[in-house]
Amino acid sequence: MKGSRRTFIKRAMVVGTSAAAVAAGRGSDALAQPSGVRSFDHVALPMQNVDAMLAFYRALGFQVTEGAQSCVVHFGTQMINFHRPSLWQNATFTLRAPAARPPCGDVCFVWDGTPDSLKATLDKTGAKVETGPVSRQGGRQTAGSSTYIRDPDNNLLEFMIYS
Predict the structure, then answer these.
(1) Residue 10: which domain range?
(2) What is the value of pTM for the model shown?
(3) Are residues 66 and 133 in the same domain?
(4) Is residue 37 in some structural domain?
(5) pLDDT tens digits for 107-137?
């Protein structure tokens, strides 16, 4: 009886883990996948117009945490580290691309809302729409609708709405 209970629990754990992997969109082979990159943790960009950048990202509804050398913008489980000019212009700061200067970013955000709610939010920031909405193939390997704007440092921002 004890062996059969142990066997039952092992099978239940495998089935439960496999079901969780399928629900997470990784398929039943997720258990066999080697370790490696699964997603990105954050993006780091230099910023020039500190006050305008922080006001802009706050107006988009992002949580902004200011630090002496960098500012962190959180949205969902993702973040952008914006390096202040005093950091990215410092020759001793080498943990960056050697030629990184604003604008150097092209970031795509998934918008969880309607096209009207995106338009209202972008209007609130004063951003001018460069292109969009247009149909695009997104990182989720499915079609969506993209709208492109620029932030105060002129980085290109894309907002993707998946149907």
Answers:
(1) 2-32
(2) 0.71
(3) yes
(4) no
(5) 999 999 999 999 999 999 999 999 999 998 8
